[in-house]
Every structure is written in structure tokens, then in C-alpha cells.
Structures
1.
Amino acid sequence: MVVAMVAGMAAFGGVAAVAGLDTSQIRPELDMLTMALGMAIGMTVWMRYRGHGWAGVLEMDAAMFVPFIGLFPLLWIDAISVDAMFGLGHVLMLPAMLAIMIRRRHEYSH
């Protein structure tokens, strides 16, 4: 799944670059959300290809966004830097994904 996420992020980032969209120059939150969207798109394609249902796919997609959204208030009050939000958000995605995989154990154990 991580390979699909990276592929989606790279493809989405490439399309955005060709379109002239540089979200990093607008707001760091928007940059993080567009990156999460790219990862979610790649993961959605891969999970649907592997036969996962939409409920599980959407939960896993949420695991791409929730860690960053949860860190936004810390960024706003200057408790963390943009770089820290970037790194910590990625690290927090993994336990979020693991929690969903444990919750839907039957979909991931075959």
C-alpha cells in the first residue's frame, strides 16, 4: 500500500506541477492536504484493484488526512513547525492505517 501511496503522490504532484499549481507557496495546510489527496488516490486505485470494498477504502483514505488535520492547530499556535507537521503527519499515518487494518482484519488476512 505504501508503494501505491508514493506512486499516487508522485503522479498527482506531477500533474499539479504541469498545471502550474504550487500549493506549497499558498499555505502549508493546503500543501499537506493535496499531498494526502495524491496518496489517497493511489491507495484507492490499488485497494479497489485488490477487491476491497468502498467502506474500507474510504476509511483508509481518511487515515491519510486525519493525522495532518489533527496537527493543524499545533501549527497555528506555533507549537510545531511546518517541517515537524510534515514528518509527524506521515509517521502518524502508519498507526492510523494499522488501526483500520486491525478493525477490518477479515479484509487484510487473506
2.
Amino acid sequence: MILFFGTRPGKPETVQLLHATCPYCQQKGSLTAVTNKNYFHLFWIKLFKISKTTIAECNHCKRGFYENEFTEEMNSELSK
């Protein structure tokens, strides 16, 4: 019997942070957050989530922020 298993990424989720301010250039409403999730699969069926990473980018100054660099304002916008 052959088992096909492994990991694969899910579809990225994009969220516009309209009420958050960029900590670098102080522009309000210019942040976009992208969340990527990796899943364990068996026979190409997603079984459970292994990891999740979220990265935010300012559309004005193009600076990127990792999850550990998020401000409280950015975290509260993402949790909505």
C-alpha cells in the first residue's frame, strides 16, 4: 500500500489594516497583512494546520513587518 503524505501551503489570506498606523512612516490605513498557513496532508486532503506566519507591508514606504514587530494596534486589527 502506498501512502501519499506531506506538507503543503494553503491559500494566502490578505487583510487590509485600515485603522492601523505604520510604525515606520506613520501613514494610517496603508498596511496590508498576508497570512500563510502550512498543513499536513494525507492523500492530498488537509488534516491539520502545522504552522502559520503573518507578514504586514506598508503600501506607502514598502517596509515589511514580521509578527514579532507588530504593534498592539496591528494585532487588534488582525484579531477582528
